[in-house]
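Narrative of accomplishments. A recurring question from our advisory board has been how the design workflow behaves on a single, concrete structure rather than in aggregate. To address it, we present the structure tokens for one chain from the evaluation set, followed by the sequence designed for it. No filtering or post-editing was applied between the two.
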């Protein structure tokens, strides 16, 4: 089954609106009309509007890094799906390991966000992944299964067809320690098997499963050549136009 590769940049807590718009402008120039890879950038909330304006008319899509499941209300400091839609965001990263470990997000709360994203026509990028201690204890697949099943509770087959999953081993994020292509493929294949059980074979074959964790131009070709690795969720290497575009080119070459 052919799946178009997708490269997403997670800018995390980096870039002012002006810096974000400048990076987005560089990306638009360098990427041009390339259409054989889907590309998403996820700036911080404060830069969404400026980056969105810069991307307008280009093939690069806009995503957010988080959101609250409710549409509005007394949730100081939070941002909702309709607010993201109003800024023309099309994607939202949910359940990133930094949200889980630093801000106490649990699977049940992440699940509410996933349901809200679908309800509001935002495509969730649901992140799953094990810590180093969990990998060393041999519980990687169990952890990933729990996060995936709990995160997708109540999601319909129709909704799941537009889901994106990101496998991000926590020990590989921002550490320079990338998972080997065999380690990553094992988990990606496992995730696709779970999606088959949760939904259908045809849905599971359509869902793109991204790898995240120290993905760089040097290691991307081998990772992207794996049969169940459909793209990347990029942190550090997405903060600079040249390395991000090299990753986009690696995905185009791997198709
Ligand atoms: P790095 O690419 O900096 O390791 O970050 C990965 C990540 O967390 C993307 O969401």
């Amino acid at each position: 089954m052919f799946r178009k590769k997708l490269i997403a940049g997670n800018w995390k807590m980096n870039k002012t609106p002006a810096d974000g718009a400048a990076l987005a402008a560089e990306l638009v120039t360098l990427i041009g009309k390339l259409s054989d890879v889907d590309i998403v950038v996820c700036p911080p909330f404060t830069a969404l509007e400026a980056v969105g304006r810069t991307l307008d008319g280009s093939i690069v899509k806009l995503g957010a890094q988080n959101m609250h499941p409710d549409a509005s209300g007394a949730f100081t400091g939070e941002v909702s799906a309709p607010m993201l839609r109003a800024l023309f965001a099309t994607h939202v990263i949910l359940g990133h390991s930094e949200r889980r470990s630093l801000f106490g997000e649990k699977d049940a709360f992440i699940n509410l966000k996933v349901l809200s994203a679908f309800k509001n026509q935002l495509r969730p990028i649901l992140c799953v992944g094990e810590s180093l201690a969990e990998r060393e204890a041999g519980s990687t697949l169990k952890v990933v299964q729990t996060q995936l099943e709990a995160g997708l509770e109540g999601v319909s087959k129709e909704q799941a067809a537009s889901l994106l999953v990101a496998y991000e081993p926590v020990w590989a994020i921002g550490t320079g320690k990338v998972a080997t292509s065999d380690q990553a493929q094992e988990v990606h294949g496992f995730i696709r098997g779970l999606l088959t059980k949760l939904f259908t074979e045809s849905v599971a074959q359509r869902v793109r499963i991204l790898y995240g964790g120290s993905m760089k131009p040097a290691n991307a070709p081998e990772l992207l050549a794996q049969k169940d690795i459909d793209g990347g969720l990029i942190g550090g290497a997405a903060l600079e136009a040249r390395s991000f575009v090299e990753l986009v080119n690696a995905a185009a070459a791997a198709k």
